Amino acid sequence: MTFTQIKQFLYALYLTNRFGLRLRKTRDPLQKKSLRLGYSKAQLEALNIHIRVENEENIPSDGQFLLVSNHRTIIDPPIIEIALQKSQIFGLWVAKKELYHSPFFGMFVRNAGCILLDREKEQMGGFFADIKAGVKEGSSIFIFPEGTRNKSSEALLPFKEGARIIALKNRLPLLPVYIKGNAAEVLKEALLDATPKREITIVIGEPIAYREKRPLEEVYKERFGL
Hints:
single chain; alpha/beta; Glycerol-3-phosphate (1)-acyltransferase; 7-stranded mixed beta sheet; 16% strand
């Protein structure tokens, strides 16, 4: 690990714990949204990565949605938070168990507004009950339907069925977003040298009705010409 990478790692650790502690002190969704945005901006500014938003007019000003996104890097949530900064949409992130107990991300994830997904459990009733409770309180749900980070050369990994079930059970229209290019490569380069300004583009698709009968993956690919 280079000196630059160590410095970035230590600063990222500082940010996650600093904002994690501040998030722990509030239950107000819009205050959490503001803190998550502050964290996202600080993290991406440290990496000197600018976020460009295409089709920003497709972002609703408010309401409840199931936001679905492709997933290539650990900075995908900050990218999405920045894209949504002008809206009043607050979403609970679906986060895997490993992040809840991570010494790096744990403090932040446990307090930022997340729903725990334990993929080792045979029964998922508790997970879907937590989703329903969050929606009832007025939150949107943010999820990566691929289920894991895509480290392949393919544009997308196959979607898991959980996203469609969440939309149907909670009557949530879907808001599709797509992070273009290989954000993982951009992040890798920024960690080695954050001096040059780099850009990542996120595209906002038109909402998808929760009653849409075609497979979500098919409609998502159609929205973004994949």
